[in-house]
User: What shape does this take?
Amino acid sequence: MRLRLREFRPRTGPHEYRIVQPRHTLRHTSLRAPDPVGMLLGDHGGLDRLAALFAFAARSPHTIVHVPLRDGVPPDEGVGEPVDLLLVHESLGLRPSRWPDLRRRLRQGTPLTVRTDEARTAWDAAAWTERRDRADFRGDLRHATHARTFFLFGHRHVFAGTATRFADAAGRGPYQKRVGEGRMAYPGSFLPLVDAPGGGHPAEVMVCFKARPPYAHFRPPGAPASRPRRPAAAS
Assistant: This one.
């Protein structure tokens, strides 16, 4: 997929960061922070672009991906605080407390267009899935919520694996029952989050689908648009 982004190079002290954002807002996609259960709700286009953003993050270890989800249409489903999304490779060592200062420096971005490699993403995702079956696996997404932002810290394989979950939700969501009536659907995807220490209910973020209005015009991707029948000719 081709992604249109904006690139920023803010500097704090001796450190320069590369941060990218989608050039256009994901208007019909929102995220509620897990407390302990959260929800990411999006239409087909939003979930599809998130899959591509995770795929891009997987192959960009020196880049922070910022998705300002609070700028879209306010959701009418879910509870909890609406938050933005930040994808960060663990190797960068970014602390959530440093993010507000970096965010304030995102003023004038440079247009950037990139392409994702779906075959490579699928290969990395398969490697991550294989590792998850091992008893000593420690490769899920670490997470934190700070400054109205949900942070996901990971590595190439887990970001690729999460990309495939978004792609699956984008592909199956439009075919769930009654979505053409404006109903929300949960196709079964969720973010693979690391459990917090100390027990209790594990943090979860469900990935859900909801078609954008007007629902009378909704068609699953690839379905032909229906046309009104022509009146029969007078005899």
